[in-house]
């Protein structure tokens, strides 16, 4: 039975072997990847909020915010 002795090991470790009564495994495994359908809703572009001043000497600072639904 095959054994492996790594640096620092005092006792060799034995490698597990496949059961002889089972058929051999295929060498290559094939997997089919499926893509999820795209969502029908697209995120809306960010539109800035505008404020209207009642007096001309009043200044406003735009605050950017994002809302998630």
UniProtKB/TrEMBL annotation:
Source organism superkingdom: Eukaryota
InterPro entries in the record: At5g65660-like
Identification of the protein by name: Hydroxyproline-rich glycoprotein
Source species of the chain: Solanum tuberosum
């Amino acid at each position: 039975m095959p054994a492996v002795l790594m640096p620092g090991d005092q006792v060799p470790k034995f490698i597990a072997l496949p059961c002889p009564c089972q058929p051999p495994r295929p060498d290559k495994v094939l997997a089919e990847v499926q893509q999820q359908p795209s969502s029908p809703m697209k995120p809306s572009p960010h539109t800035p909020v505008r404020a209207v001043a009642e007096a001309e000497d009043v200044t406003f600072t735009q605050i950017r915010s994002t809302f998630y639904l």
